[in-house]
Structure formats: structure tokens, C-alpha cells
Specification:
This protein is of the alpha+beta class. 62% of the residues lie in helices and 17% in strands.
Amino acid sequence: MDTTSDTNPGPSRDGKTAVQVQILGHQLSIRSDADEKYILEVSQYVDRKMREVTEKLPVASVSKVAMLASLNIADELFKERSQQKQAGSQANGRAAELIRRLDEVLDEAP
């Protein structure tokens, strides 16, 4: 996704769609190959995270709010990746155990 000062919504010359979004009271035009609904969903999520920061910490600087919200979002991402990796490791362990059992059964067959 790209931010732009273009105020014309809809497809642009490069085939990307421009969508107007509002984050923490600031209007932005986002150009992306992604679906408009997805762009709006992502921008609403970022807006919500930034508002959470401003509710917890009375920070006057929008850039500080953005940095703190970014850190919170990155923390969520890293935790999710870790959970996915752990789940993948568990699934691999179960698959290896099933293969071992199957090999035992096949070795026992006449």
C-alpha cells in the first residue's frame, strides 16, 4: 500500500485503486492492488490501535503515537508468528509420530 496526495478515488494509471481513509483524524489516500474493503479494514485497525495509545498515554505528538502503535502492532505480529511456528512444530511432531506408527504397522504386516 502506498500513501499519496491523490484525492481521486478509484483505479489509477498504474492499475492500483486509491481509497480515502481516515486515521486519527487525518485523511489519507491509499493506493494499492488490494481490495478497497481490505484497505479500509486495515486502516480502521491502525486507527483503533493509535486511539488505544492516545487513551492510555496522553502523548501530544502524532508521530510518537504512530511509533507506539506500530510497536504494539509489531508485537502482535511477532507473537502470532511465534504461535504459528509453535503450532507448525507440533503438527510436524504429530505427523512424524503417525508416520512412525504407520511404518511399524506396515513392517508387522505379513
